[in-house]
Amino acid sequence: MQNAAANPGPIRSIVGKAPHYLNAINVSESLFALPFGYIGMALASHYSGGAGWPGWSTFIWITLAFLGVRTLGMSANRIINAREDARNPRTAARHIPAGLLRPLEVGGMAAVGSAIFFVSAWQLNTLALLLSPVAAAYVVVYSFAKYYTWLCSFMLGLALAIAPSGAWIGVTGELHWPPVLLTFAVAMWAGGFETIYGSMDFDFDRANGIHSVASRFGIRNAIRTTRVLHTLAAAALLVLGIWMELNVFYFTGWAVAVALLIYENNMVRSGEAARIGAAFAFNKYISTQLLLFTVLAVALPFDGFFPW
Length: 308
Known about the structure:
Blueprint: H1 2-6, H2 10-16, H3 18-24, H4 30-47, H5 56-80, H6 82-87, H7 103-124, H8 126-141, H9 152-172, H10 177-197, H11 202-208, H12 213-217, H13 219-243, H14 248-267, H15 273-280, H16 282-299
């Protein structure tokens, strides 16, 4: 009886560690990138003559594909960076360094995420399935980038930016230029914030040979780089709305996103770690509200910029 209590079965062990599994892959941070995936989905449906809704089956498989590939990428990141995380005071409390999860358990999460992703791509269409190994490989490989190049922030941005193009392919079975522009915008947005976020490890990175924009060019230049990238993101989102002839609701969301980006960049201009961490939360507001206004833009039954 005592041995049974001390050694719970595998199912009970997995259930008991469920919060650790979810926290290890930062499920809450899916709110940053998932809305852009749904924006790609809504715009693809609109492009194909629909009203922004591709149907429940497509919606569910796109959602599962996103969650699967994110689980794969984050799990791989935690395993690949575990030794470095253990040495870095900011990341030493992560699940593998802290002993809350074993690398084998996190590897199991990666395997499950991969399976969900590939099955979802298979259920969507042929092109999604053919491209799924490329996406899966990329979200694993980018975690090595910080050991070799200061462009690692841009590579992370592109990993997140796969979502809208992937969702577009999931709906249409094809890739067109509008989702490529949206992917560029998301890459600039995410890569920009990751550039300044990486400055929180400035001292550690320089002491341990970890590459980043901040460790290569300094924190002030990292902040300037973030502003440039976010300006490019805002410009790309504006061009996207004009190109697809979206109405005033989309441009309202765009204006709010720009205002939040300006506020976010003002928050981090001092380079203080506490302010950078606080600004990080604004990303989910940017993407979520833009999704809301994009859905309104493609769902409401009027053409042109204004409803009259």
